[in-house]
Design brief:
Layout (H helix, E strand, L loop, with lengths): L1 H23 L2 H21 L5 H12 L7 H11 L5 H11 L2
Length: about 100
């Protein structure tokens, strides 16, 4: 269940990122960007066939990352999911290290 939730959060983060890009750039630029993003997601999904669970999640994260790093909003979403159940200073320290 946690793995499914993590994949859903990653998908949502990617869609939020593209929505943000759409609202802050010209229409022609966003259409090209959306096509590139769709192509990238399709290629990564195709390459991940046969993978399951943590292996697939790690592969998709690295495949969709930019220069080996996930997009900032996606990284924040992933860290929030992983920090579930932590409180106070423990959560603060975890988030600080996760977002580096």
């Amino acid at each position: 269940m946690k793995k499914l939730f993590s994949l859903m959060a990653l998908g949502q983060a990617l869609s939020v990122g593209s929505t943000y890009a759409t609202s802050h750039t010209g229409a022609a630029a966003t259409a090209d960007g959306e096509d590139r993003q769709r192509t990238r997601v399709a290629a990564c999904t195709g390459a991940a066939k046969g993978m399951k669970g943590e292996e697939r999640r790690a592969f998709m994260r690295s495949c969709l990352s930019i220069d080996g790093k996930p997009p900032a909003q996606g990284k924040l979403t992933i860290c929030n999911v992983e920090a579930k159940g932590l409180n106070g200073d423990e959560r603060k320290n975890f988030m600080r290290n996760c977002l580096k």
